[in-house]
Structures are given as structure tokens and as C-alpha cells.
Amino acid sequence: MSTPTSSPALNQSPPPASAFARWSVAQRRASLAATLAQAPRHEGQDLWIFAYGSLIWRPEFAFSERRLARLHDHHRSLCLWSRVNRGTPEVPGLVFGLDHGGSCSGVVFRIPGQAVPETFDALWAREMATGAYLPRWLACDTEEGMVSALAFVIDQTGVGYVPQLPEDDVVRIILRASGTYGPCIDYVLQTAEALKASGICDDHLDDLARRLLSEHR
């Protein structure tokens, strides 16, 4: 992909790079401990994780069961500035979060109880590097019944939160951004493909993916 030398101004600019800060190891550990203390289980029992974005196609952990699931009162949205994985502090990209309202179809993974400490520690390093999410135990509907799963809900008070942007802005941001995990466009397109492969319909994301492909060069 060639990077344009200039592009129209965005209707909503990201916060300055100076506003970006990583959480310390101590902050991550405290957040993880508080979340596990609220887990709907006794110590040693299995736990569930709800995946709605890259965790679907790159979970990076072992699991004993995988189910399609639906979460209510939240929806999948490109609502978080990414300044490391899919962007930089100077040219941030966008990644998915669970924003309030609507519903979201995704996948739940069952984590064996003995693997919970190691799995969740690695998950926090990946997803809570800046504390942009609010980890919550939420009810997820599956064909086999309801499960309570960990879900990463966007913190709307955080500096990384992106309220709904015009699609033209979303497209420009995605096309120009790239981070340690690669181009932002790859992340969005892989998520769209993973949803299709899982039999999950997301018309809005499908439309966005088609437009990205048509404008990608």
C-alpha cells in the first residue's frame, strides 16, 4: 500500500501523542486480580472469554471449547485509537471495542481452570496495555445455554475512546495506519473474514471491508 502524502483533515482528531501512556505491570496485575476476584466461579474452575475482534482469529491461548455467542446491550465498534499494535502515537489506527447499545455476535472460548492464571496474565498484557477497556463478566447466549464470559468493554472516559466517526474518516484512518502487528487494514479485513468463516453476519463491517478493498492501493 502506498501512503498518501496528504489527506483531508479528520472531523475528529486523535488526542496528542503525549496523552498516550502504557500501564505499568503493577497496574495490569491489580486490574487482573480485581477482575478474577469477581469471576463467577470457585478457584480452579473453568472460565469463559468473549471474543469479538482479533481474539476470534488469533486467540493466542489454548481452550477446551469454542462456541458462537451473542452478547446484548453492547456492539462491536472501531472505537479505540491504536497507538502501538495497529498504529503509532503520531499516526494512530483504530481497533475494535465493545461499545454500549445494540448487540454483538462473536465467539466464547472456555479456558480450563488450571490454565486460567497463565492465560489471563498473557491476555492482560495484550488487551490491557493502556487500560483502555473495562473488563466485565457479561451474560452471553449460546445454543448450549447462557455462559458468563469475560468481555473487554470500551472505557468511554478514556483518552483512547473514539465516539462514532463518519465513515470517510474511518476509511482514511485505517488506510494510513500501521503498527507493530502490521497495517490497520489487515486487522479490519481479517476480522471481517473471521466472522464470515464462523458464520457470523455483520453487515456494517462487510460494507466497510468492501470499501477498504476498493480504495486500497
Break the fold down into its secondary structure elements and pairings:
Layout (H helix, E strand, L loop, with lengths): L24 H13 L9 E5 L2 H4 L7 E18 L10 E19 L4 H12 L5 E9 L5 E8 L12 H10 L1 E2 L2 E2 H14 L5 H13 L2
Parallel strand pairs: 1-5
Antiparallel strand pairs: 1-3, 2-3, 2-4, 4-5, 6-7
Helix pairs in contact: 1-3, 4-6, 5-6
CATH third-tier fold name: Hypothetical upf0131 protein ytfp
Low-confidence stretches: 1-9
The N- and C-terminal alpha carbons lie at a distance of 5 Å
Mean pLDDT, as a whole number? 93
Q: What is the element string, with H for helices and E for strands?
A: HEHEEHEEHEEHH
Strand order of the largest sheet: 1-3-2-4-5
Describe the structure concisely.
The chain is an alpha+beta fold and 217 residues long.
Which descriptors apply to this entry?
single chain; 217 residues; alpha+beta; Hypothetical upf0131 protein ytfp; 6 helices; 29% strand; globular; disordered N terminus
Describe the protein's architecture and organization.
The structure is a single chain. By secondary structure, the protein is α+β, with helices and mostly antiparallel strands. The chain has one domain (20-215): Roll (Hypothetical upf0131 protein ytfp), CATH 3.10.490.10. The chain has six helices and seven strands; from the N terminus they run H-E-H-E-E-H-E-E-H-E-E-H-H. It has helices at 25-37, 54-57, 116-127, 167-176, 184-197, 203-215; strands at 47-51, 65-82, 93-111, 133-141, 147-154, 178-179, 182-183. The chain has a five-stranded mixed β-barrel with strand order 1-3-2-4-5. It is globular. The termini are close together. 32% of the residues are buried. Mean pLDDT is 93; it is low at 1-9.
